[in-house]
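Deviations from the work plan: none for this task. Representative record:
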Amino acid sequence: MRHLMNPLDFSVEELDKLFDLAEDIAENTGRYAHVCDGKTLATCFYEPSTRTRLSFEAAMIKLGGQVLGFSEASSSSAAKGESVSDTIRVISCYADICAMRHPKEGAPMVAASRSGIPVINAGDGGHQHPTQTLTDLMTIRALKGRLGNFTIGLCGDLKFGRTVHSLINALIRYEGIKFIFISPPELRVPDYITDRLNKMNISYEEVTSLEDRIGDLDMLYMTRVQRERFFNEEDYVRLKDFYILTAEKMQLAPPDMLVLHPLPRVNEISVEVDDDPRAVYFKQAQYGVYVRMALILTLLDIVPDTNS
Amino acid sequence: MLNIGKIEEGFVLDHIQAGKSLSIYKHLGLDKNADTVAIIKNAKSAKMGRKDILKVECDINTLDLDVLAFIDHNITVNVIKDGEIVDKKELVLPKEIRNVIKCHNPRCITSIEQGLPHIFVLADEENEVYRCRYCEEKYAPKAESDI
């Protein structure tokens, strides 16, 4: 039985296969409408999420499966003090696969170690968010035609931004990637990531100015400064508007640079940028459903007969 | 000059960094069993200036050398049988350590989940860096009771 905790749980070849399947689903969605008939996905979300949870639910429904679960800890037995280990043992009796989001880092890993069904990490604290990474990789592959040989700028909260950590982890396996980390000094990428990059001799820069480097980027990955990750409201208020991508700043960017964002956006990208063809964050959300459909099929080991 | 008698079976842990012997005593669980233990603090050492030594009279199969290696792999471990040194163990950094140290990351699942083993894995052998298996936080001692 396989789980997905970290994008590195899948080899580059396995990811290619997954993206091929996701692309086929995107082109022939109707052919997959019943491949999960009789299967159930449990969405165990211990902290609020709209996009990821609905994306998982949409993915399972489009495959013909059913969905059950909870969308906040207060409506689960966690409010009564139940452990993650106990919850997953019970959920294993009700569902065939589980997507879990938890504010504590490593919670889905604990669940996977006790589970009778595949567990997908749908985000754990500030740690990892592998299905967002699959979405990001698929978006890049579909729109750039390659996964490798580009310069990517990651901008905003690089300390607590789990989507950033997962994406860097995944990209280091491809050739010719150059990272430019754009953040205030307080929100730099954690040392376990820079340690890894140093060890692997992967090129990266840590800068604070977006305007200075936007012209060098093939891709700009914007992130939100997340209020829920701060213990101190004062720090949050000071840092939340550090970067705002505007139409004016987009004029400094190359004509084929892509702007990605895991969403939700607050005000780090002005709405005027939405009409720029380089802004692909809403397309990303669509790819997210296809890639989650492919992931569910892969972890359930369902090989669809799509010829009929 | 302090004289401490020979032990018949057990270990002499030599070249312990001065002041660390009590921490090792605790982490080896010697405070919880009935073994005879001699703790020598701040002994003179040609190599180290000052050092600590622990003499433990016990069954030689009972000591957790992985824990010892994690604490300080430069410690010399002399294995004693019938009052003589029969072996010198070389300590190697363990790939994984369980329930020796705790993760200090308040966002880690270990901070709330009952009964979960605290597991750290060797992430960087060269720099002796251990990371929490669950949240990947680097281990950094906080309190005196930590290593």
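Chain A touches chain B through 19 residues (CB under 8 Å).
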